[in-house]
Design goal:
Layout lengths: L4 H17 L8 H6 L15 E9 L9 E2 L15 H21 L12 H17 L5 E9 L14 E4 L3 E2 L4
Antiparallel strand pairs: 1-2, 1-3, 3-4, 3-5
């Protein structure tokens, strides 16, 4: 058994290299899709670049919808956030959800069929409705979109769709 340390270390490094180079296989089960919120994503630095941002616009009645606003704005850092930081946790969860939606959209066919059946799309719709209830409780109709934004850039408030990943239809608010 003497001298087996370098062999074990070499095998360990080979296994690590093999695991790093293996491509992830997407799992299509709806149960697993709902449970993935419990498991962290370890793809920290896989891609650098644009991040998905959720925007929402709303209207009170039959009038036109207003300008686009960021649904989950960045949370300022505060000293007491070390103890309780629900807003930052929500922002992190929303960012993770939008990353999952962007990944799911990239796997769909080019015609966009089946977007509404994606669990990540449905959760994004619920997130937009939840944030709208917080931002504008009097709203009766809303629409959301997810755009790809370079970090640090100001999100557009107009209706251009240059960097748009997905746009929902106009939806009536259901209160209950």
């Amino acid at each position: 058994m003497r001298g087996s340390g370098p062999i074990v270390l070499a095998v360990y490094l080979l296994v690590l290299v093999a695991l790093v180079t293996v491509r992830a296989v997407p799992i299509r089960s709806r149960v697993v899709q709902r449970l993935r919120a419990l498991f962290p994503s370890w793809r920290f630095f896989e891609e650098l670049g644009e991040v998905p941002v959720l925007q929402v616009r709303h209207g009170a009645g039959t009038d036109a919808l207003g300008p686009w606003t960021v649904a989950v704005p960045p949370v300022p850092r505060r000293p007491w956030a070390l103890l309780a930081n629900a807003d930052a946790n929500l922002a992190l969860a929303a960012g993770s959800l939008l990353q999952h939606l962007a990944a799911d959209l990239s796997e769909l066919p080019d015609d966009g069929a089946g977007i509404a059946e994606l669990v990540s799309y449905q959760l994004t719709d619920h997130l937009a409705a939840y944030q709208l209830a917080r931002l504008a409780p009097a709203a009766r109709r809303y629409q959301f979109r997810v755009i790809a934004l370079t970090p640090g850039a100001a999100p557009p408030t107009d209706d251009r769709d240059d960097d748009e990943l997905v746009r929902s239809p106009v939806t009536e608010v259901v209160r209950g």
